[in-house]
Amino acid sequence: QVQLAESGGGLVQAGGSLRLSCAASESIVSNNFMGWYRQAPGKQRELVASITKRGSANYADSVKGRFTISRDNAKNTVFLQMNSLKPEDTAVYYCISRSDYGVAYWGQGTQVTVSS
Known about the structure:
This protein is mostly beta strands. 0% of the residues lie in helices and 52% in strands.
């Protein structure tokens, strides 16, 4: 079974940056839809960034211009570079991989906390 391991979360002041990583246990990054969701306390999980297997990236309006998703196919890793962080970005961030057949895998999540 595919495993996804996120890392890179932590505590940062508003205006700061963090880089999240999602390492896959198999060579799926280049073949699957890869994305980053986040879930804040009391809120629904939302998709903040995604990248298709063809390399097309999409972002939620709330993070456009601040977050960048990328991938390293050789390392089976997807990244989320987060700049100009705001307190409202505080959430648990989850990595997702979804195949063309709809099979989805989730990581365990990594906490991002932005202090004002």
